[in-house]
Every structure is written in structure tokens, then in C-alpha cells.
């Protein structure tokens, strides 16, 4: 698996998670527990990982989120 994005933005993470799920792209969100335990001060970003062969499609799917649109 490869890292797709690393973010502290919970809204952005939620949108990305929903889009990937809806498109049927398998993914995993890492560091959620650790990020929550540090008090949500943004010191530890959460990471979204996808399979290498799905990375290009996943990036295209979330392009507008990454651009802040």
C-alpha cells in the first residue's frame, strides 16, 4: 500500500474516505487513535493508504479536495 494523503483536517479526511468508499477503492486510514489521543491539536496527521495500482484513480477522484475546492 502507498500513502495517498496525510492530513490533520477531519472534514477533508471524511470527504476522501467517503469518496473512496463510494468508488469501491480499498483504503485504510491510519493514526486515527494516536491523533485522537494527543488531544486533536494537530500534531499527528492521519494517513490514507491505497493499493499501488489504485493510487492514480484515487488521486483523480479526490483532486478537487486536495486543491481545496
What distinguishing features does this structure have?
single chain; 69 residues; alpha+beta; 4 helices; 22% strand
What does this structure look like?
The protein has 69 residues and is an alpha+beta fold. The chain is built from 4 helices and 3 strands, in the order E-H-E-H-E-H-H. It has helices at 10-23, 32-37, 55-61, 63-66, and strands spanning 2-7, 27-30, 46-50. The chain has a 3-stranded antiparallel beta sheet with strand order 1-3-2. It starts with a strand and ends with a helix. The model has no long low-confidence stretch (mean pLDDT 86).
The rough form would be described as: globular
* Individual helix count: 4
The parts where pLDDT drops under 50 for at least 5 residues are none
Number of β-strand runs: 3
What average pLDDT do the residues reach? 86
Measured by DSSP, the beta-strand proportion falls in 15-25%
Helix coverage percent of residues? 40-55%
The H-and-E topology, N to C, reads as EHEHEHH
Major sheet: 3 strands, antiparallel
Structural class: alpha+beta
